[in-house]
Target: SKAP1 protein
Amino acid sequence: LEEIPPRPVQDTGNILKQGYLEKRSREHSFFGSEWQKRWCVLNRKTFYYYANEKSKQPKGNFSIENYSARLAFHLRKDSRKKCCFELTCPGKRTYEFTAPSPAEAEDWVDQIQFLLKDLSSLTIPFDEEDEEELYNDVESSDSVNTTSHNTTLNQDEPNVEMEEDDIYEVLPGKQ
Model:
């Protein structure tokens, strides 16, 4: 079982979707399962759930990898049954949620399925350690093998000037 470090809501990394959902608790009371309102956050690899959006510690989290998401109208018998979805993974706990609306439930399922498709395809490498540095080309802008896309990404740099007729980048030492 891999250990996912608990993080405050603000530190969960690149957030793909977040919002309040009702999560079905594992414990069954005399009246059946209880639904608890939770602030849920989905990032690239992990699903976190918190007591509210300002919480410092998650109530729980799990790696989204190998899970599948689908609408699950059978989870409730009341008027909110079309707002339900579940996350399942063979051999692991099933997570059951109720969204504020049927459209919102569909959006959660779509986002999770999209993410799972990305995780299963090897075309999008992702290393959590480098998360902050993925699009940071500023350090390399003075190196010899600077490519032209770096200058277009960093247009607010004062030393990058483009003349109207000059479409070629002038490389250092090639003037």
